[in-house]
Amino acid sequence: MFDYVRKHTKIMMGLLFLLIIPSFVLFGIDGYNRFREKGQAVAVVGSYEITQAEWDASHKQEVDRLRASMPNLDAKLLDSPQARYASLENLVRERVLSEAALAAHLVTSDAKLARDLQSNPTIAALRRPDGTLDMEQYRQLVGSQGMTPEMFEARMRSEIAKRQVEAGVVQTGFTLPGVADSALNAFYERREVQLARFNSADFAVQVKPTDAELDAYYQANQNQFQAAEQANIEYLVLDINAVRKSITLSEQDLKAYYEQNAARLSGTEERRASHILITAAKTAPAAERDKAKARAEELLVGVRKTPASFAETARKNSQDPGSAAKGGDLDFFAKGSMVKPFEDAAFTLKKGDISDVVESDFGYHIIQLTDIKAPKQKSFEELRASLEEDLKNQQARAKYAEAAEAFTNGVYEQSDSLKPVADRLKLEIQAASGVKRTAAPGAKGPLANAKLLAAVFNPDSVEKKRNSEAVEIAPSQLAAARITQYTAAHTLPFTEVRASVQERVIASRAAELAKKEGEQKLAAWKANPATATLLAAQEVSRDQPKGLPAVVLSALMRVDGSNLPAWVGVDMQAQGYVVVKVNKLTPRATPASEMQKQDREQVAKFWAVAENQAYYKWLKERFKVQIKVNRPSNSVADAAQSTAS
Asked: Where among 460, 488, 516 does a domain terminate?
């Protein structure tokens, strides 16, 4: 085959030309790049597909934002499945609002954009005293976000348009005073009640299921006894620390690094200076600044003629209130402590020298260097530990990109084992058992990363036991894994789940007995209230439920208050049954006018939020939103229930 290709090179080149060039003409090189980079869609909004890469980037931005605002926030919370799913929902919401803005032809005028930028405190801080925007600082600000001013302003126009979509609902919401008062009266209304509880647990002792009943329940409810697919895996993690461990330093490297950095590592040089300041604000008129400079130059002539008079001249003439009384003495300072023009001049002087007039934002300085405190240089042995630490860190950062490329290529090219990559990069192969598609509650590190778990359970990885692709699980941290043993989802045999079946049957029957007993008592007590055995009366309301379950509180608050006392039974399902007697109703006290006004405004806000939520739900239906990722459980109990079902 290869001999044929070698002998007929021109024919093969012509064939490739005919096959490849037309497709580039039809789709373009960018089309190929987009196809390659698009990746798997995790959500769809209209005709727009949100890819895994977009989701990852959006989540990273959100994590960076939260870490910047709350440095002490637990990093595990930010990388949990719930946090990642919330990022996806936010991304979907942003896309829905963008589609709605486009459909409504909402545009942002230059005047509206300018007003919005003016109200931004970060941008407002870039304004000069005359009100004009410092464009250089503005470019630096948006450049730090990886954008040009044009890109930033385009994004701001889009954000304003998206806000307009919801503003039409939120800002026009209102409630009539009568409607608000009706809702508030119901919320604050109090009811005196007495309860009788029939707990399922109290009836469990009466249930004695037979083996036949247990088997029948198992056969009818096999979906409750499913074992989720799981795998035993081995995995590798490459990060800066792993690269660092592989680095060996020679004595020659360390000594060369010592020679280059001994002064820096030994400490910081400090200088002591005195100065005479003639103040002149940076924004002062030119004539005023010229006058201040002339005064400083006049004083400079005097102190240079008689250097010993510097302190006395400073006391009499310096306009720096902090140092004038001390003869201009500023004590010792290191680099970075003073404004740059002052510092540059001070660190070029020799002890006893007097500078020329130095201009700064504060005015004009005359500087006399009075002392130099040079740090004592430490020996090689004293600095050995810090030298090794510094040099290893530097080399690790420099070598990480090379190691990352070797890691990524290695797990792909030798896909039947992680050992070659581990040996080459001196990484430790780690193992984990019982790994599932969704991270287990409390999982940490790679096993909590949704993207890595998705790669592990990729069909190619499952069926052929191949290495997963290299996945970036954190900044400068790659991981890859492979399945060593796979167990598909299956129904657990009866012998393994017999105890669970028995527990469920008993709980179900006990709940039925509790309900039956509760309904019988309810009927009897309605007929003859004097025979009722109830707990002591207590007052409850929607804002003060006194620990009552929501379903019980809702039921007793719905009882017609015009015909009391009244009885109601509440089926608590697995927990049992509750009988409630509602004795009397206490209406909401009439609030003071100011409080009433605030309450009505609060109801109006809640109403607007509810309307906006309903509107967003309608928009999702209009643009046919599909989220193709399962919502993670919100608790350990949820996770356990999900696993069982």
From this structure: 488
